[in-house]
């Protein structure tokens, strides 16, 4: 069992490996798959989050999801992705049922931040801008390794007291090439409604509570290509989710306003469970076609797709929905789009091929970074004087005093950050998305071009 010191949390049946190394302090949350605890590492004093996954082999799907998340987290090393700190190896690999995973502690989840933003001193545009930028940094890092999260939502983003954002929960993530073909064994479908996550109803009436429990992936952040069951999709589905999150963050800039999801649909067939269809329609008291309600919510805000976008869809009944329904164009009724929100319409677009490029996160950086942004975005060469721009480039060992920075040169690098008078920290592998944020380091930082072993094929 866990230690019983003052302020410690008593948890029965804690493995010896956990109780020896960590002090469980409080329960952070409980879900269908287990419980998450806040703990302190006895050796380092570091704050960590420990996830206990109950009955990990309950179903094949659960086991695969857990294995996938562990595998992905082992390969990721980015400041905006919660790191895997430790995995407790059970003493008997043939009989264990529960699994304990130790991760970086990230603080509150973003859904709580959005709900309680009025209690955060000084909350404003700079917080929204910073959180969105960090989210895009983490997303670009994942996409540089062909990794798609597939379940981005506010509750899967942690925010620390210092406003550092970290992406969590990679149980539904996939590694793919340019496009991913959904297959039977990986489809995001309901397998056991009693075991699924239960998102809060938000702006919807309480009578949709039962219906909301039928979803694995929160429908409000789900891209249209998933709703339409397109056979192929790509990383643009994560960008759609980012846009939905961005919309909620923007609403926090309107003082006194309670932020609401941008697309609060009630049903999303065929990914919704169908067994209560008739009952649901009666309870909602609306004449709606249950299987298209989420899609209709999207059309109400951004309008129906133009003909060219409709023709790009796979043939099927859902293709006819867009042809029949005619809605207005871009009616962002609840949002005040200032400078910080100018890119929202580019993210929330109907055709994933036309969505905002992920590398355009660099637009959030100011000053001299714009020259590197253009070089990376366009794949062009740019002449940079290292001596006069040491704060920008630091010291680039791979080049002469005047160097050409091209796309191929900045895709994969290492950074080495000197400590003041105490030697150097161990170099950490990073990819091109971290190149830009790392330029904010001190001028004596060292940038060395080399291969990156951090992301495996």
TrEMBL record:
It catalyses: L-threonyl-[protein] + ATP = O-phospho-L-threonyl-[protein] + ADP + H(+). Its EC number is 2.7.11.24. InterPro entries: Kinase-like_dom_sf, LSM_dom_sf, MAP_kinase_CS, MAPK, Prot_kinase_dom, Protein_kinase_ATP_BS, Ser/Thr_kinase_AS, Sm. Its main location: cytoplasm. Keywords: ATP-binding, Cytoplasm, Kinase, Magnesium, mRNA processing, mRNA splicing, Nucleotide-binding, Nucleus, Ribonucleoprotein, Serine/threonine-protein kinase, Spliceosome, Transferase. It is an enzyme of class 2 (transferase). It is found in: Cytoplasm, Cytosol; Nucleus. GO terms for cellular component: cytosol; small nuclear ribonucleoprotein complex; U12-type spliceosomal complex. This is Mitogen-activated protein kinase.
């Amino acid at each position: 069992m866990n230690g019983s010191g003052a302020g410690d949390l008593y948890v029965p049946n804690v493995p010896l490996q956990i109780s020896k190394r960590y002090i469980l302090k409080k329960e952070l949350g409980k879900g269908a798959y287990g419980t998450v605890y806040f703990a302190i590492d006895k050796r380092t004093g570091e704050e960590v989050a420990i996830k206990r996954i109950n009955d990990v082999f309950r179903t094949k799907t659960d086991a695969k999801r857990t294995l996938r998340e562990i595998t992905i987290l082992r390969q990721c090393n980015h400041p905006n992705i919660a790191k895997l700190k430790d995995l407790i190896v059970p003493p008997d690999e043939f009989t264990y049922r529960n699994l304990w995973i130790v991760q970086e502690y990230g603080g509150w989840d973003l859904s709580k931040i959005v709900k309680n933003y009025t209690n955060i001193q000084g909350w404003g545009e700079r917080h929204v801008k910073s959180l969105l930028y960090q989210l895009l940094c983490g997303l670009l890092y994942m996409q540089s390794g062909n990794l798609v999260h597939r379940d981005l939502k506010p509750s899967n983003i942690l925010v620390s007291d210092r406003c550092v954002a970290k992406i969590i929960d990679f149980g539904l993530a996939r590694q793919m090439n340019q496009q991913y073909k959904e297959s039977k064994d990986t489809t995001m479908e309901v397998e056991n409604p009693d075991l699924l996550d239960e998102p809060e109803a938000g702006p919807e009436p309480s009578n949709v509570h039962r219906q909301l429990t039928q979803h694995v992936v929160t429908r409000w952040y789900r891209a249209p290509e998933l709703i339409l069951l397109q056979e192929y999709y790509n990383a643009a589905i994560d960008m759609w989710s980012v846009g939905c999150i961005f919309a909620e963050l923007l609403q926090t800039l309107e003082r006194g306003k309670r932020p609401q999801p941008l697309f609060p649909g009630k049903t999303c067939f065929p990914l919704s469970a169908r067994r209560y269809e008739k009952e649901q329609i009666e309870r909602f008291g609306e004449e709606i076609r249950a299987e298209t309600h989420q899609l209709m919510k999207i059309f109400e805000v951004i309008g129906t797709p133009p003909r060219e976008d409709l023709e790009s869809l796979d043939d099927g009944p859902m293709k006819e929905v867009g042809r029949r329904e005619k809605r207005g164009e871009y009616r962002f009724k609840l949002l005040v789009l200032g400078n910080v929100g100018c890119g929202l319409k580019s993210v929330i677009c109907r055709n994933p091929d036309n969505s905002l490029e992920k590398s355009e996160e660099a637009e959030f950086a100011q000053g001299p970074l714009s020259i590197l942004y253009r070089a990376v975005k366009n794949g062009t060469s740019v002449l940079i004087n290292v001596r006069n721009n040491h704060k920008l480039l630091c010291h680039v060992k791979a080049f002469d005093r005047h160097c050409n920075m091209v796309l191929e040169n900045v895709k994969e690098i290492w950074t080495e950050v000197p400590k003041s008078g105490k030697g150097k920290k161990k170099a950490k592998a990073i990819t091109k998305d971290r190149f830009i944020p790392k330029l904010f380091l001190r001028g004596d930082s060292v940038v060395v071009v080399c291969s990156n072993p951090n992301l495996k094929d």
